[in-house]
Amino acid sequence: MSTSEPLSGPARITTGPAWALAGLLIAVVVGLVALGAWSATGGPAFRLDDAYIVLNNAAAIVGGDASFPEVRPLHGSTSLLHTLAVFLLGLAMPPDAALFWLAWGAVLAQALAALFLARELQLSLAFGLGLAALTATAGDLIRVQVNGLETGWMVAAILWVLALAATRPTRPSVAILAGCLPFIRPELAILSIVLLAHGLWHIRSRSDRRAAMAFAGTFLAVTGALCLLQYWLAGTFLPVTGDAKKYFFETSVMPWDERAALSGTTLMRFAFFAGGPLLLALLVPKGTLARLAVAFALVATLALAVMHTAILPQNWMRYLYFVLPVAVFSLAMLRASDAPGSRRATMLILVAGLAFNIAASVPRLGDHLGVLAAKRSTLEQTSDWINRNLEPETPLLIHDIGYVSWATSQRLFDIVGLRSPEAVPINRALRYQRGAEGQADALEAMIDVSGSCTLLVSDGWNSIANFTGSLRGRGWSVLPHPAGHPPGHQVYLLEHIDRRTCNGRD
User: Fold this and answer.
1) Transmembrane ranges (predicted)?
2) Which end of the chain is more exposed for a tag (fewer CB within 10 A), N or C?
């Protein structure tokens, strides 16, 4: 099969009402499932506190940020385009509702991309519907795909751009979407370059200099415009979230054998609990574009495994979800090829993948939705506690900044560094270079920089990182707040007689 010309094969109906009705059916099903999720949780709810960072930053575009008044609105946002989409949709509805419907819209976009891909490759409508169902159910739906972050739209964007490029790699829409990819997730810049080179290679075979200039010019214009917008809204041409998370969660002192073991375990867990049989399609890519896409997935996975070993397993391995649309694309390309046994192999992968996805998600769906509602209730009560018991202008040292920054006007200092850039060099010099031994020094430096003598951490993170224990080990008085702890969190007053700040004499 050649990828330089539109695919040929047995004549099938690829336009007309049947495919449109299939798309409408998919939209209805996804909409009903989304309404069911809304009803089960009593409104918009998200598993990760980071989702509320998106809401806070989107609101800061116009209204500013009382919690972090010194930084640009989108400083600490990973995805420029996702945050802007939340802001724009939030003009028409409550912001959390906008984030909810945008998250489920990504699931719909994924399914429609799979259906479009099947039509472009002249596959049967039945296989296209199966491919759409496989795509929409792949991975962890509630905790990852609709987590309120850019994950779902990353999956959708990858599949759409590959589907568009499958038969016409020089379409203007390919150049536009390829230029947008790094502003959905930064690591997708690798795929952007691959698609640009692939399109130019096809144009070169026609010796059409004008077409090459138009394709490259469109790509560069989109990328350049978004770079400028990113700088205007965030103060940097590229997101800083990668560095902030790396220097907080990673450590350079982790031995390479431990790093390799952790990465290997994470990749196996992703294969067995998220990817399933669908990942088998990565083993037999057919066509140049499929091979390039699989190469991108492998390179990006290896880069993350080496550079972000400790981050990779977090949040149910969401950082690896770019692999899923590549696997869907490879499966469709294998189906469209005339390779021996391809029809039987693709049908087996499709059926097994659907069975795996349903078995992995449906039995736990109720529990996952219940956790969402409980998480939102905990965050709401914590924010109410802050509004009742803390002075808004008194800085609060905090680990999970999302909901608190969105729902209160409390001055905050983010110890991870997503919204407090002063924390990043501190974590780089102390936590990253020295590991757990540098944590107390890092916290002391942040206390001095922020002037904060109050610490708020979640029960879970304090049990993992032992923030309070490390401070007590350095002679700090770490006392529970007189008003008690809010649900799921711990609030402490910090005092040290020998420190410049929090010495009881300020």
Assistant:
1) 20-39, 123-142, 149-167, 173-201, 213-233, 266-285, 292-310, 316-334, 346-366
2) C
